[in-house]
Inverse folding.
């Protein structure tokens, strides 16, 4: 009897064998429901064999194999295998993590016909079907073909009138590539957007990339903010779509950039586009995923998880804002969607385009050493839109009041008078980051995390931004009884209060995670900004990403210095990228842009580079530092992370793991150390760093070591390997 080998979502690094009399080789990639302990679980069939190592008396039978949807293609299984091996994570967990939630359960999915109407037409192959070759009893097929010959196109609605089963048949024909399907009515967009003439730089970029479009290449599209990277993407995509291929576009957070989706829909109104992001419910996600798997959806716009979508006709992958840390999952399976995208492109022998104004140093370095091919856009795309003027305000000589300096207030005032919009950027939500006792210097701390509680004055609460814990304000200092306890420092709410007092007539809008919590709040906010109903915006990094505010001319930046003291070696790189992004919001159209940074270190090289818009200068400095210090991209790193209720247990576990390791000379193993933030959500954390200048040797070592760590008793400890870690 055939034996199916199933990948299950359980935290052990093994696959499980079951008997199944109905199984054949064609079932690889289908889901199967099997007994596991006392439960039933569903996994994916990875292999069908004729024998097993499991002794006959222990071998169980599978309950069933689900056949309502097509099996995962071999390319998807290859991606999961690679992901499991590279990140040292159980294959079953990798596979099940990559599937839509609806496919993880023990029930077959009920497939509603897609609620969107589709319009079908015959492909070249379809037009060659000979009507007389279809047996007379296949009434529906004949009717459909006749219809096509009369009308050339058919909507799903019209097909249903012929027979309820006609739509199903059409879907089969789509898979056979006899018929193509596009959404109907063709476009919800009223007017197709005007297509701009490419700038000379854009044209070179598009030509360079499309000339080599048939094969694998990693392109780094390095373009300053406002240089029109999106237009370059659109032109390359057009090329791919013309060949009937699919395009996968990964972006950091779609829900925050509805504009981008609209741009794609407007440019390709007749193309079936699906958007896969966390704002969807499970059914919507499944529907989009299936349309992608069946090859019906041609453009797939998604966040990190979308990198696992099966795409039979994939022709191009784009990763926008490739440096964004949201492409790296920070818990469970710690994968980098950008790096997996590159793997997929290589496997498919297709191009992948990484776009950014401030590439990650890893990608920049790869472009320097020729592993990636670099295309640059040095100027803004819109005529007369110059890069903004960036200046520092020295807060040692310009004392601040409530966090704001005189020159910044004056600039805001001038901007108001000119009826332009301004943005005050402070990357800290809440009212104040600290509640402080002025008598004994007590500060409010979170009980579950090594962090301070943030003052939220609106709802009169102290909140932990790490674990979500909330508590009431104390009446007096719990330490010394003093009643004079006060918020210290600035957050978005406090800046809002201060600016409201300064500019009572101005329309001020605060934008942070707290203010966009309500449904549609974000959409409404964007609309208000575009309709010029806002004069001063106060916002966190939420506002920094990819938005186009044509009337915004002034950006004020508060509190950026804190990142300069960070012990994280990537802090400067991140700060620069973030400030470039925020600064890039100013002066994108005909209004000139001005950026003012309040700082105590106006001569810091980072601010110098920023003022000159000189990414290369900073990147060269940082690369030189990293080379000397032996940090990425000159070495490859991995972390063994562990957590438990007590740090002693964690360190003990890590020491045991370290004792098992027999690294070759080329691999360096460091001592276990407590994490930057020792306690998080009630658990204490530590890690152990491993690094090597050879990725291959690091991987070989990790594979061997991973197997050994797996054998350690670890009931009280949770551990995970983090390959290419971004956080420490
Ligand atoms: P980036 O993503 O590089 O920051 P965008 O793609 O958002 O830049 O483009 C910036 C602005 O320039 C947008 O308003 C876009 O419509 C406009 N734009 C892009 N290309 C052109 C062009 N060739 N001619 C005129 N405007 C353009
Ligand atoms: Zn006190
Ligand atoms: Zn907490």
């Amino acid at each position: 009897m055939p034996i199916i080998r199933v990948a299950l979502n359980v935290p052990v690094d093994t696959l499980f064998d079951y008997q199944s009399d109905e199984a054949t080789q064609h079932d690889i990639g289908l889901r199967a429901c099997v007994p596991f302990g006392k439960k039933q679980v569903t996994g994916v069939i990875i292999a069908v064999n004729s024998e097993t190592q499991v002794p006959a008396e222990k071998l169980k039978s599978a309950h069933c194999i689900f056949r309502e949807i097509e099996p995962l293609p071999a390319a998807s299984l290859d991606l999961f295998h690679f992901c499991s091996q590279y990140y040292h994570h159980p294959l079953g967990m990798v596979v099940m993590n990559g599937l839509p939630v609806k496919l993880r359960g023990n029930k077959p999915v009920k497939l509603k016909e897609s609620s969107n109407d589709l319009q079908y037409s015959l492909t070249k192959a379809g037009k060659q079907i000979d009507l007389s070759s279809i047996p007379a009893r296949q009434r529906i097929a004949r009717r459909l073909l006749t219809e096509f010959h009369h009308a050339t196109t058919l909507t799903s609605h019209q097909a249903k009138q012929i027979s309820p089963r006609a739509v199903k048949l059409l879907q089969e024909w789509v898979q056979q590539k006899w018929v193509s399907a596009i959404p109907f009515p063709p476009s919800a967009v009223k007017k197709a957007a005007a297509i701009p003439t490419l700038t000379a730089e854009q044209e070179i970029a598009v030509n360079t990339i499309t000339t080599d479009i048939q094969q694998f290449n990693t392109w780094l599209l390095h373009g300053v903010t406002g240089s029109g990277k999106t237009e370059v993407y659109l032109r390359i995509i057009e090329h791919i779509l013309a060949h009937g291929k699919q395009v996968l576009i990964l972006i950091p957070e779609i829900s925050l950039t509805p504009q981008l989706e609209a741009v794609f829909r407007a440019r390709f109104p007749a193309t079936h586009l699906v958007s896969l992001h966390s704002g969807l419910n499970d059914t919507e996600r499944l529907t989009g995923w299936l349309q992608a798997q069946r090859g019906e959806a041609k453009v797939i716009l998604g966040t990190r998880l979308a990198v696992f979508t099966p795409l039979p006709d994939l022709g191009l992958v784009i990763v926008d804002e490739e440096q964004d840390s949201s492409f790296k999952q920070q818990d469970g399976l710690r994968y980098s969607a950008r790096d997996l995208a590159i793997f997929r492109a290589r496997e498919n022998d297709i191009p992948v385009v990484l776009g950014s104004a401030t590439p990650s140093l890893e990608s920049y370095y790869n472009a320097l050493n020729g592993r990636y091919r670099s295309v640059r856009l040095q100027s803004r795309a819109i005529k007369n839109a110059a890069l903004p003027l960036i200046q520092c305000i020295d807060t040692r000589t310009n004392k601040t009041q409530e966090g704001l300096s005189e020159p910044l207030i004056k600039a805001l005032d001038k901007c108001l008078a000119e009826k332009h919009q301004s943005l005050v950027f402070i990357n800290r939500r809440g009212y104040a980051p600290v509640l402080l006792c002025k008598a004994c210097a007590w500060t409010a701390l979170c009980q579950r995390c090594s962090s301070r509680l943030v003052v939220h004055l609106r709802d009169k609460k102290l909140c932990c931004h790490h674990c979500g814990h909330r508590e009431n304000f104390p009446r007096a200092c719990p330490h010394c009884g003093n009643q004079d306890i006060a918020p210290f420092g600035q957050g978005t709410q406090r800046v809002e209060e201060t600016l409201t007092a300064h500019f009572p007539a101005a329309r001020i809008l605060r934008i942070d995670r707290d203010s966009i919590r309500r449904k549609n709040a974000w959409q409404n906010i964007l609309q208000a900004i575009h309709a010029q109903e806002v004069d001063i915006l106060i916002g966190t990094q939420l506002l920094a990403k990819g938005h186009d505010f044509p009337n915004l001319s002034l950006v004020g930046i508060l509190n950026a210095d804190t990142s300069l003291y960070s012990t994280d070696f990537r802090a400067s790189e991140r700060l620069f990228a973030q400030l470039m992004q925020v600064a890039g919001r100013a002066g994108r159209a005909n209004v000139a842009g001005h950026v003012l940074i309040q700082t105590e270190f106006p001569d810091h090289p980072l601010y110098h580079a920023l003022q000159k818009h000189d990414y290369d200068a900073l990147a060269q400095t940082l690369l030189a530092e990293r080379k000397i210090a032996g940090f990425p991209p000159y070495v490859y790193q991995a972390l063994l992370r562990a957590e438990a209720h007590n740090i002693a247990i964690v360190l003990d576990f890590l020491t045991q793991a370290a004792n098992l390791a027999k690294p070759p000379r080329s691999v360096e193993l460091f001592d276990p150390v407590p994490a930057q933030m020792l306690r998080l959500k009630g658990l204490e954390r530590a890690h152990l760093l491993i690094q090597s200048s050879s990725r291959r040797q690091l991987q070989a070592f990790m594979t061997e070591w991973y197997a050994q760590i797996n054998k350690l008793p670890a009931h009280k400890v949770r551990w995970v390997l983090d390959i290419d870690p971004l956080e420490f």
User: Anything to note?
Assistant: Residues 437, 439-440, 442, 477, 479-480, 482 surround zinc ion (ligand 2) (CB under 6 Å).
